[in-house]
Amino acid sequence: MNKATIASQIDKVLTRIAAAATQASRLSEDITLIAVSKTKPASDIEAAAACGLKDFGENYLQEALDKIQALQAFELTWHFIGPIQSNKTRPIAEHFDWVHSVDRLKIAQRLSDQRPAHLGPLNICLQVNISNEDTKSGVSAEQAPELAKVIATLPNIRLRGVMAIPQPSDDPTEQAAAFEAVAALFNTLRLTNPELDTLSMGMSQDLEAAIAAGSTMVRIGTDIFGARNRS
Ligand SMILES: *Cc1c(COP(=O)(O)O)cnc(C)c1O
Predict the structure, then answer these.
(1) Relative to the CA of 100, which ligand 1 atom is closest?
(2) Closest protein CA for atom 14 of ligand 1
(3) Which atom of ligand 1 is nearest to the CA of 220?
């Protein structure tokens, strides 16, 4: 996509975030925009960085590593948001700043063991399967508190909060309920982990509903970089 198009798409997304924040009596500064650049070339990320974006989300390890390498000079913050195979944790621990898609202890343990000490703790969100969909990754809301408790004790990762991808819905009430269920779980976890500060939810189609429910990080791909050839 050309640079001017990416710039105007980012403007539109920032305007939507600001409007949703105002609507919810929140500050837009409290909502971080993660530009999801999976399948898109490094040049698109460079164009988005030129607009002031710093946070980028990637799902596929190999293509992400290539882009992280190519864009080193920009000092971007990289978020891994895709499914994680346990034999791929080392490069994730070595090259990313955040991992949003942790849903089992084994992965968290490996990330903690493999995180290079000089980088400081890796920021982690627990991915929660809030709609209990068979096809989706994520720990169930029922099992999340126990998992969070154990993960919070690991030395080289820092548990920051919860990530979820609620089932898309055309019914605004149903959509709001799903995001509110994630927010309720987040608030429950904060009772025992008051340092948790991140609620990662909201994508191109539903960022307004996510912000209304308290999202602090929205992950936007299509509405910044255009449709993907594969997803
Ligand atoms: C691809 C992806 C996104 C971005 O979705 P869009 O609908 O393109 O905005 C956000 N979060 C995750 C986990 C994704 O895999």
Answers:
(1) 13
(2) 81
(3) 9
The confidence score (pLDDT) of residue 231 equals 52
Q: How far is CA 105 from CA 109, 154, 177, in A?
A: 6, 10, 28
The residue whose CA has the least distance to atom 11 of ligand 1 is: 219
Q: Which of 92, 76, 66, 96 is nearest to 35 (CA)?
A: 76
Where are the domains positioned within the chain?
3-225
217 CB within 6 A, ligand 1: no
Note the pTM of the prediction, 2 decimals.
Answer: 0.97
DSSP state of 157: E
Rounded CA separation 156/118 (Å): 10
DSSP letter for 99, please: E
Which pLDDT score is estimated for 134? Answer: 76
Please tell me the class of the 3-225 domain. alpha beta
Distance 106 CA to ligand 1 centre (A): 24
Segment-wise mean pLDDT, segments of 10 residues, the chain, 231 residues: 96 98 98 98 98 98 98 97 96 98 98 97 97 84 96 97 94 96 98 96 98 98 92 52
